[in-house]
Amino acid sequence: KEDNSLPVELINFTAEIRNGNVYLDWQTATERDNYGFEVEREKVKTESEWEEIGFVPGYGNSNSPKKYSFVDKNPPDVKVGYRLKQIDMNGGFKYSDIIE
Question: Which of 8, 43, 57, 66 has the fewest CB atoms within 10 Å around its CB?
Answer without folding.
Answer: 57
